[in-house]
Amino acid sequence: MARKRTKKRTHVGANNLEVDAPGHASARDPKSMVIRIGAGEVGSSISQLATDVRKVMEPGTASRLKERRANKLKDYAVMCGPLGVTHMMLFSRSDSGNTNLRMALAPRGPTMHFRVEKYSLCKDVQRAQKHPRGGGKEFLTPPLLVMNNFIRPDSDSKTKVPKHLESLATTVFQSLFPPINPQQTPLKSIRRVLLLNREESKDDDGTFILNFRHYAITTRSTGVSKQLRRINAAEQFMSTKSSRKGKMPNLGKLEDIADYMTGEGDAGYMTDATSGSEMDTDAEIEVLDSAPRKVLSARARQAAARNAEDEEQEENVERRAVKMVELGPRMRLRLTKVEEGLCSGKIMWHEYVHKSKDEIKELEKRWEKRRQEKETRKREQKENVERKKAERKASGKHNEEGDDDDEEELDYSDMDVDDFDSEGLGGDAEYQVNEKMEQGGEWEDEEEEIGKGR
């Protein structure tokens, strides 16, 4: 019998996870998967939205993930452990046409359910801009996360949006990207900004709404004229094979380059300071020159220390103007439900369904009974597998492949796939509907129809 082939080529890089180079996430950094639940049924717009969100989450995300219509949530949850995935973002569309987003911490939750009330794709945002920013080296490093107004100063445990829920949302979003050290992180590595702004609710109406924005950071030197910047940029592109003519300024109608440098009229050499236009000083920063320098000897360093240190420092400081260009996508997220576990568990907070203390105690008993039944079912499955192994071994029909198939039948996951609801309003609300149908006798009518069908 031929030996079973083992794949090796596709897993060459699995032994070298500690990569800290730009464009590669290290083993300690958070990793995410952006998934479409019910691929092929959510529509082209939701599919493109999921693709745009993957670009936001780069480089620590599965950017080439391919979903299939037959894939279930359990299939992705099982692979979170081997792949080191810490966050799952699930896009889906309900029967009523609502777009939902679930953000879950793998492997044990909690899960935050959002309703995407409004969204704009990257192509829509770039179409509305005069000079859109294309994809370049911005996506080699994770974005800088900026959160605003997540925790209100007057919130407590009795408000409609309790304080512990605000703290949970802050922790979940902060863990999406690796933390940075302001003293050691180089400024060139921060190329994007992810802005999450919580809208202020009127009179504590119980809404938790987030605005999702994604920007690219661009800088330019403020002491150099626009004409000189264009010539410097054209000189850099002359060494490339593409876009040579498009980057060169048009000097065909001029007799001398001095006419281009001075601009129209006899105004002389034009800079941002002498152009007559008011500069936006709020967007300027001072950046130290980080160019490599020659290593000096001990005598040279002592001689340099005697000179004026302030003058040398001023020479190494460069003033640059900072501008943010929106990349997209845009989303307006409304938090509807928070539950324990990975899309299956007790409801911690619900925007629409509110329960009394007696109802909460009843739910606690129901969940405890359900947990015990689940543990009993797992124990029975394990005992059945062990019994089948013993019978095969006693009869002399030991089959390794059959043992592997039996082990795959075991369900060691803490998630119940049947509890997953694409509408985002499952759990307790769904149980109430089933209870009403049972009291009204509708289940008995369905049982009779099923019996007749048999």
UniProtKB/TrEMBL annotation:
<dbReference type="InterPro" id="IPR045112">
    <property type="entry name" value="PPAN-like"/>
</dbReference>
<dbReference type="GO" id="GO:0030687">
    <property type="term" value="C:preribosome, large subunit precursor"/>
</dbReference>
<dbReference type="GO" id="GO:0006364">
    <property type="term" value="P:rRNA processing"/>
</dbReference>
<feature type="compositionally biased region" description="Basic and acidic residues">
    <location>
        <begin position="368"/>
        <end position="400"/>
    </location>
</feature>
<feature type="domain" description="Brix">
    <location>
        <begin position="32"/>
        <end position="344"/>
    </location>
</feature>
<dbReference type="InterPro" id="IPR007109">
    <property type="entry name" value="Brix"/>
</dbReference>
<dbReference type="GO" id="GO:0019843">
    <property type="term" value="F:rRNA binding"/>
</dbReference>
<feature type="region of interest" description="Disordered">
    <location>
        <begin position="1"/>
        <end position="27"/>
    </location>
</feature>
<feature type="compositionally biased region" description="Acidic residues">
    <location>
        <begin position="401"/>
        <end position="422"/>
    </location>
</feature>
<dbReference type="GO" id="GO:0000027">
    <property type="term" value="P:ribosomal large subunit assembly"/>
</dbReference>
<protein>
    <recommendedName>
        <fullName>Brix domain-containing protein</fullName>
    </recommendedName>
</protein>
<feature type="compositionally biased region" description="Basic residues">
    <location>
        <begin position="1"/>
        <end position="11"/>
    </location>
</feature>
<feature type="region of interest" description="Disordered">
    <location>
        <begin position="368"/>
        <end position="454"/>
    </location>
</feature>
<dbReference type="Pfam" id="PF04427">
    <property type="entry name" value="Brix"/>
</dbReference>
<feature type="compositionally biased region" description="Acidic residues">
    <location>
        <begin position="441"/>
        <end position="454"/>
    </location>
</feature>
